[in-house]
Amino acid sequence: MFSGIVEALAPIVKIESEQGNKHFTLRNPFADGTTIDQSIAHNGVCLTVVRNEGDLYTVTAMQETLNRTNLGVLKIGDYVNLERAMQLGDRLDGHIVQGHVDQTAVCTEVRETDGSWYFRFEYDTTKEQIARGYFCVDKGSVTINGVSLTVCDPEVNEQMSKCENEKMCKCFVSVCIIPYTFENTNFKYIKPGTLVNLEFDIIGKYLARYNTLLK
C-alpha cells in the first residue's frame, strides 16, 4: 500500500529481458538502502526487489505488467518515480494507492500557468470500464506515474453518450502541478506524446462495483 507521495527519482542503469519478463536495475536513492522482497512503487507500479548490490537494486516486471503500464517503453537513462510502502501509523499525505496500475494515458498538453504546471492526458475507456470505476471525478484523486494528484476538469468525449459497451471512447483528465512536485518527480520530463500510468481511486472502484451489484 502506498500514498502517492514520491520519495525519490532514480535512473535506470540496466534492462535485461528474460522470456516475457524484464529486469530493471536502478541506482538506489535511499540512504538506508533496500532489502530483498521489499515492495517499491515504480511510476506507480508495485514491484518487488529481487537483487540488491551496493548502490544498485533490481526489480522484475512480468509481461502482464509491461502490457498494462509504461514500464515496457522505458529505456536506460530514464528516471522513475519511487515510493516505498507505507508504514502503519504514518500520516496519509496523499490518498490510498495500491500500486496496481489500471491503464496508461497519453499526455496531450503541457503548459506553465503562472508558476505552476497544467497537464492534460487522454485515455481510452468503455461504458463497461466506467461502470467498474475506471474514471475520474472533478476534485477527486488520481495517481499518475505514482504521484497522488487532484483531478481538475475531467472530460468525457461527446462520443461517450453514443458508444456501446464494447466500443472504446476517449476520455481526458487534467491535473495541476506545483513547482516542487514538478522538480522532484519525472513530471518535468513529460511532454505531449509521453505515455504515463494511471491508477484510479480504489474507493471509487468499490462504490462503482457496489452500485453495479445492487442493480
Explain the overall architecture.
The structure is a single chain. By secondary structure, the chain is mainly beta. Helices cover 14% and strands 43% of the residues. The protein has a 6-stranded antiparallel beta barrel with strand order 1-2-5-4-3-6. Strands 7-8-11-10-9-12 form a 6-stranded antiparallel beta barrel. A hairpin with a 2-residue loop joins β1 (8-18) and β2. The longest helix has 13 residues, at 202-214. The chain starts with 7 loop residues before the first strand and ends with a helix.
User: How would a textbook summarize the main sheet?
Assistant: 6 strands, antiparallel, barrel
Oligomer designation: single chain
Q: Please identify the structural class as seen in this structure.
A: mainly beta
Strand content: 35-45%
As laid out across the biggest beta sheet, the strand order is: 1-2-5-4-3-6
Radius of gyration, rounded? 17 Å
Number of strands: 12
Pick out the low-confidence regions: none
Total of DSSP H or I helical runs spanning 4+ residues: 4
Shape: globular
Order of helices and strands: EEEEEHEEEHEEEHEH
Integer average pLDDT: 90
Fraction of residues in helix: 10-25%
How far is the N terminus from the C terminus? 31 Å
Observed structural traits:
215 residues, mainly beta, six-stranded antiparallel β-barrel, six-stranded antiparallel barrel, 4 helices, 14% helix
Describe the SSE topology.
Layout: E1 8-18, E2 21-27, E3 39-42, E4 45-53, E5 56-61, H1 63-68, E6 79-84, E7 103-113, E8 116-125, H2 127-131, E9 141-144, E10 147-156, E11 169-177, H3 179-184, E12 195-200, H4 202-214
